[in-house]
Structures are given as C-alpha cells and as structure tokens.
Amino acid sequence: MFGKVGRGRAGETQASVGDSGGRRSDRRGQERGGVRENDGHARVEGGDTAGRGDSARAADPPRTDSARTDTADSGGAWDDGLIARRVSEDAAGAQQVLPVETRGYGAQVAGPLAYDAPLRSRLEAMRELVGLSRTRLDSRTLAEAGRVLDEAAARRRLSGQHTVVAIAGATGSGKSQLFNALAGVPISETGVRRPTTATPIACSWSDGGASLIERLGIPPRLRRRPLQNPENEAQLRGLVLVDLPDHDSAALQHREQVDRVLALVDAVIWVVDPEKYADAMLHERYLRPMAGHAEVMFVVLNQTDRLPGEATEQVLDDLRRLLDEDGIALGEYGEPGATVLGLSALTGEGVGELREALGQFVAERGAPARRISADLDTAAAGLRPLYATRRRTGLSEEARDEFAARLADAVGASAAGEAAERAWLRNANRACGTPWLRLWRWYQDRSEPATGRLPLRSRTDEEATARQRVEQAVRTLSDRASTGLPAPWAQAVREAAVRGSQGLSEALDSLATRTGLPPGRPPRPGWWPAAVVVQASMTLLQVVGGLWLLGQIIGFMAPNLGVPVLLMLAGIVGGPIVEWSCRMAARGPARRYGTEAERRLREAAAGCGRARVLDPVAAELLRYREVREQYGRVTGAGAAGV
Asked: Per mean pLDDT, which range of 176-180, 226-230, 295-299, 557-561 is the poorest?
C-alpha cells in the first residue's frame, strides 16, 4: 500500500513508514539513490503502511502547519484504499515509488522554443490579418485567431526541449492505467468508481518543464516524476505527460478542464476501448474538429487483451476507417499523420511500442511548432469565408467611366455644353446678322403670345431628378464594387459608398454653378470684325441705294435707276449671304466651345465623385486585397490561391 505523502519545512518530502526498521531501510535507499534531490525535484519513496499502528504514528516527527496542509492535500487524492487494493501480490512486500515533483531553487531552466522561418512568417501574417480586420469584423469572429496568436507567443517563451502530451479518453477506456504504465509507477488513480480522474495530473521525465505545467494550471501537489529508470528516462527525456479527466464525464467541470488543457498541450493521445471506439461524442466533438492536428495525435486502442484472436486487427481497421471518415490523415507508409496503435495497459502488451513511438516523437522536438501550425490552419479555415473568393473583385475602368458619366448626366454636362454652343451661335448671329432680320426676330419674340408654349420644368423638379440620378449612380457603383466580395467586405464597400454620397448632390450643384458658362459673352474669333465690316457695308449699300432712288423720285437727283437698284440689290442679297457664311463658319468654333464647357463640367463632376465616393471605395477594396494577401500567407497558398 501507498502511504500519505507530505512536505517538510526544508522542501523535502518524507514518507512515513511502519517501523523504525522501515525508516532505516528508507535511509539506506536514499544512500543508494532511491531518494535524492535532483535539481530541486525530490524523488520520494513511500513505505508499506499496511501494518502501521499507533506506535509508528507516534514515532513520526511533529509537522508544521504547512506540512500538515500539504499532507492533507496529497492524502485526499490517494488515501482511499483503492490504489492499495490494486497492488499486485508479488509487489506487496516491496517498496513502491510515489514520486512528487517539487520546485527547488536549483531547478534547470530550459531554453525557449524557436519557430522556423515559415511558421514565423505565417504568424506574422495572421497578426497583420487580425490587425487589418479589427474594424471590419467583430471580435467574436477574430477570437480564435487571437487565441492562436496568444498561445503561440506564450508557448514560444517556454521550454523548447520539452513536449507536453495529454492522455485523453472516455470513462473506462483505461487512460489512467496507460498513464501509470508509461510512468512505471501508479501515479494516476484507477478503479471502478467513475469518474476516477477528477483533475489533470502531470508527470515530467526531465527537469525544466515546470513552466509548461504551470501554464496548464496543474498545482504542484499534482505533479509527479516517473519511476527511476535510466533507460526509460533517456528514451522519454523531455516528455511531460498529462492525464486528463474523462471527456464524457457527467461532471461539467471535468469536461471544461479537458477542453482547456487540450487547447494548450503540444500533442494528445486518444485512448479508446473496444466498446466505445466509435462513440459519436468522441468523433464529432473532438476528433473531427481536430482533423488538422493529425501529426500531433496518437489514437490508442486499449484493452486489446479483451479481444479474441484476430478481433484486434479488425477493430483497428474499423478504427482507421472511422478516422479517415473524420478527415484525419493516418501516419502510414511514411506519410505524416496520426499514429494508430493497439495495446493493453493491463498486460503491458504494446506499451513498449507506444513508448518507443513517443520517444521518437519527443526527440524530434517538432510537436509544439506542428501544433501551432495546425492551430493556424484551423483558425484560417474558419476565416476562409470572410477572406477567400474565387471571383474577380474590384472596380474596372468601365465601371469608373460609367460612374463619371452618370454624375455628368446628373449635373447636366451635356445640356451645359449644348447651351454653351447655342450661346456662341447667338453671339455670332448678333454680330454678323443683318439688322433687319434681327429686328424682325425681336418683334416676333415680343408679339408671340405666352399661351401654347411648353411648360418649363421648375428648378425644384430638376434638383429632385438630379438627386435621384446621383443616388442611382452611387448605388450602381457600390453594387459593382462589392460583387464577389465576402459579406463583411462587401458591406464595408457599400457603407463607404453611402457615406461618400452624403452631400454629393449639393456639391455637384455648387460645382455646376462655378464651372458652368463663364460670365459675359463667349469669346470671338479674329474674323468676326471683318465679317461685321462686310455686313455693315451691305447695310450701307442698301441705305445709299435707297436714298439715291428717293432723291430721283423727289427730283433732287438726275434719273438713273440702274445704279441705285444694283446697290440696293447688292446690299439686300449680300447681307443674308454674309450672315449665312458667318453662321457656317461659326459652327466649328461654337461646337468646340460647347464641347470644352461640357468637358470642364464632366471633369469637375468626376473629380467630385472620385474624391467623395470612388476613393473611399477603392480604399476598402485595397484593404481587402491586403487582408487577402495576408490570408494567403497564413494558408501558404498565396493571394492568387484564395
């Protein structure tokens, strides 16, 4: 049987024995190396206390309060008689080792973990990804990615020479029995009572892993050392083994502890039994979500001694089939993946093979980095719908030009150009037209009644129509820009477009007023003065001819009808010809003048739309391209692969 284990004031743990001869035997065992201080960790032997009586208890030295408290803590977990009843008859009279790990001042400090360049690059990309996405995605969406970054940073600061492996399993699968078999000593309690393991227990094969165990939240009273065996210690040096409560325990706090520790360990050994290896809870809650962690996973079929003949291989084949359906890669034929073994922790069959596989796994010292890499893959897979898209995204030049054209139509650029062209032509007509025709047109405008004319649209109607055109232009642009984007980024693009559209109509109205027709008359070309002189000459010929004829009629001048008539005809015919010629000559300059006015207004409207809408939308698209590039770095596929 195992006695209670306590700690003295000097940090040493003393096991009580049945008689003074037992104490002398303990001291001899200490001299032989059975109990010694090893870098601050005490290996403590416990004697057989089956026949311990009151005299033996009276012989114990008095304890301090702290020692009494520690003894009570340890005894609460061990002194229920279960372990004592399970000790084999052959070892009933021999001393059993119950090692307890305590932290000493001379504890070895292991070097920190070092990640390779690809993993560091992926972590940095994930950090950039989270930073760029905080204002676009809610904190719950980024929680898993943030947790992976925090855990990667925390694990990197801890020992790189140790590998933390958890043993997990269902009730009655024998995981604690396997834990004891690997340690070589009954450390974790086993028995019929369920659940047997209530709290995680850690066993370290070498010094320097205390910080890793502290990270798991395992108190010092639940930290153990394996049976002193140089061969096993050399084989499993650097291993920190953790026995977890049952993942299907009826106690909620047990399941919570399992989930918490599984998120922190470097690898996990799943222990299943022939009865519940296909349990839906195990596969759906744990194995299937952890399919990406196959390289840091062992799946052990325990209790094979209960299977007759070739049933073990049949169950193992069915277990491999289930794991394959879960998406877990199997480490067979030299391929990376999960290791599947069959063993019996009770008889010891297959335990050596598992110990050898664990020793090779720990010696590689690659499990922490592979675990972090698998966590990154899982987090990236969860974020894939938020970043990855196979469709072409962004704004094409055609969409930009169409948006500018819609704004130009809303501000009336075409109408402004036509108005400028008409103004130029009217100015040409005024300068080069015949006086009599201009007088006649003025008379018609004055004498024409107001009835029968088409009603003019009010300025309020024009502004409402222009506002609707602007809103339609912004809506069309945002729809095109957000097409193919994941939902959060499409929403961000639409919100940027809506924010930019606020006040855009008013800005365009002010722009049209400033950039419309310049004040005053349109500029005149150089030939206009000559045309004006010729038109004045034609009018002068008409006046001279008329006065000449009038003088002949009243007898003031000698009769001669030919010359004055020719002069009047020349003036009457030449005036319209000059006006028509000037109009033909003015079409080109008038068109250029109108086109220039339209161009200025279009450019001004496009510049206003670009500053208020296009640039914010382009900024959102650029941010999305940046996060997609970072996501490609995280997944290792590159931006083109997502």
From this structure: 557-561
Alpha-carbon distance of 553 to 87, in angstroms, equals 157
Q: Which residue has the tokens 């004031």?
A: 9
> Could you count the other beta carbons within 10 Å of the beta carbon of residue 82?
15
What contacts 417, CB < 8 A, 6 or more positions away? 594, 595, 597, 598, 599, 601
pTM: 0.66
d(CA 270, CA 168): 5
Residue 289: count other Cβ atoms within 10 Å of its Cβ: 13
Cα atoms in the Cβ-side hemisphere of radius 13 Å centred on 268: 23
Per-residue b/e over 165-192, b at no fewer than 16 CB within 10 Å? bbbbbbbbbbbbbbbbbbbbbbbbbbee
Q: Work out whether the CA dihedral 554, 558, 561, 563 comes out positive or negative.
A: negative
- Looking at mean pLDDT, say which of 23-27, 232-236, 334-338 comes out highest: 334-338
Q: How confident is the model at residue 26 (pLDDT cuts 50, 70, 90)?
A: very low
Cis amide leading into 449 (omega within 30): no
Asked if residues 545 and 567 have their Cβ atoms less than 8 Å apart, the reply is yes
- Give the number of C-alpha atoms closer than 13 A to the C-alpha of residue 92, restricted to the C-beta side: 7
Q: Is residue 13 over pLDDT 50?
A: no
The pLDDT value given to residue 642:
64
3-state secondary structure of 526: coil
- pLDDT tier, 10 (very low <50, low <70, confident <90, very high otherwise): very low
Task: Read off the amino acid at residue 332.
Answer: E
Measured in degrees and rounded to the nearest 5, phi and psi for residue 473 equal: -65, -45
Provide mean pLDDT across the span 228-255: 88
- CA distance linking residue 598 with residue 408, whole number of Å: 9
Q: Of residues 626 and 513, which shows the higher confidence score?
A: 626
**Burial group, residue 330, by CB count within 10 angstroms (0-12, 13-18, 19+):** middle
Residue type at 451 in one-letter notation: T
26 C-beta neighbours (distance < 10 Å), count: 21
The amino acid at residue 606 is: A
Tokens representing 434 are 């015949």
